[in-house]
Design goal:
With about 325 residues, this protein is of the alpha/beta class. It folds into two domains: about 5-100 and about 290-320, 2-Layer Sandwich (Nucleotidyltransferase, domain 5); about 105-290, ATPase, nucleotide binding domain (Nucleotidyltransferase, domain 5), CATH 3.30.420. Helices cover about 45% and strands about 20% of the residues. The protein has helices at about 35-60, 80-90, 105-110, 155-170, 180-185, 190-200, 210-220, 220-245, 265-275, 295-305, 310-320; strands at about 5-10, 15-20, 25-30, 65-75, 100, 115-120, 125-130, 140, 255-260, 285. The strands form two sheets. A five-stranded mixed β-sheet has the order 3-2-1-4-5. Strand 6 and strand 7 form a beta hairpin. Helix 1 packs parallel to helix 2 (about 80-90).
Length: about 325
């Protein structure tokens, strides 16, 4: 029996899966953050070592039994990252081929019907990567949020929401129910206390408050509704950038939606779809329904010479839901 390994190395956690050649999950591991930008390469190695040890123990195999590995790595943004990442992965003593990509690719591999197309990520931040049918050409944005003009993760949404609360207070903008919602959220006395506490760091209003913006929009507040429409349009613009890079304008392909922001549903997705279809009417928006680490495992299978069939994909999903054998 051959076994394959996948790792989703994130900014908050590192998730590991091992499966056999049938797609049956044999072992799992969960460790701390592995993004080298925050924990360094030593932290990345420690998270991987911890997670893979758990998964190997559960699967009752050794690293020598792994036939191929796939890695999705948060923070793998530039070619200059590659040498140290390869060196870090080599420290795991894997004795089989491996493939590694930015973690945005995992959602694409796991969620696109044919395993190619574009993935748009909107969680705490946002990102967009894609590749063509032959996986020879990659398209991407920078993934650096407001720093490079790529907004519409939950962090940017809430940051913009607080700007609109400030605009309402200064009479620069329209009154909004967001003001009272954020006052209640932090326990402020009034708008002045909210804004003073927010600007001085006494009150923390960050991406975790994004569901409140959706709730206010769903209740009919026009300011919140326009804000979410803006976010959806921004995510559509990220996709359009990658569509142009890959020349996808005139073909049918999947755009996989990855991340917690898409739990907001049509308020966010409809303006995104409208924006994308101005350029690529054949694009089909698909919400990722399996964990991204499944994509890492599929990459591991492919790196080991196994082309996952629909049956293998289904077994991976079903056995992940059941847990290891």
């Amino acid at each position: 029996m051959k076994y394959y390994f996948g790792a989703d190395i994130g900014s908050s956690k590192t998730q590991i899966l091992i499966a056999d050649e049938r797609g049956q999950i044999a072992g799992t591991g969960l460790a701390g953050p592995g993004n080298h930008q925050t924990v360094g390469y030593e932290g990345m190695y420690s998270a991987l070592q911890d997670g893979i040890t758990q998964a190997l123990d559960e699967a009752r195999i050794t690293v020598k039994d792994i036939s191929g590995s796939g890695f999705g790595i948060s923070g793998y943004d530039w070619p200059s990252d590659e040498p140290e990442m390869v060196e870090t992965i080599n420290r795991l003593n894997l004795q089989a081929p491996f493939e590694m990509h930015n973690d945005a690719i995992l959602g694409l591999v796991a969620g696109a019907e044919q395993g190619w197309g574009i993935a748009v990520v909107s969680g705490s931040g946002c990102n967009c990567w894609g590749w063509d049918r032959d996986r020879k050409h990659i398209g991407r944005v920078t993934g650096f949020g407001d720093l490079t003009g790529e907004a519409a993760g939950s962090t940017e949404l809430v940051y913009r929401a607080m700007q609109l609360v400030a605009h309402a207070w200064t009479k620069r903008g329209q009154e909004t129910a967001l003001t009272q919602v954020f006052i209640d959220y932090v326990g402020a006395k009034d708008t002045v206390d909210l804004l003073e506490g927010f600007t001085t760091g006494r009150y923390r209003v960050d991406g975790r408050a994004a569901p409140l913006v959706f709730q206010v929009a769903e209740a009919g507040d026009p300011v919140a509704g326009q804000l979410i429409h803006w976010a959806g349009s921004e995510l559509g613009e990220l996709a359009k950038a990658v569509i142009r890079q890959l020349n996808f304008q005139d073909i049918n392909f999947d755009i996989v939606l990855v991340g917690s922001m898409f739990e907001g549903g049509s308020l966010l997705v409809d303006p995104m779809r409208e924006t994308v279809r101005q350029l690529a009417p054949g694009a089909r928006l698909v919400k990722l329904s399996v964990p991204p680490v499944i994509g890492a495992l599929l990459l591991g299978m492919q790196s080991g010479g196994l082309q996952p069939t629909p049956e293998i994909r289904k077994m991976l999903t079903d056995s992940f839901a059941r847990g290891p054998r």
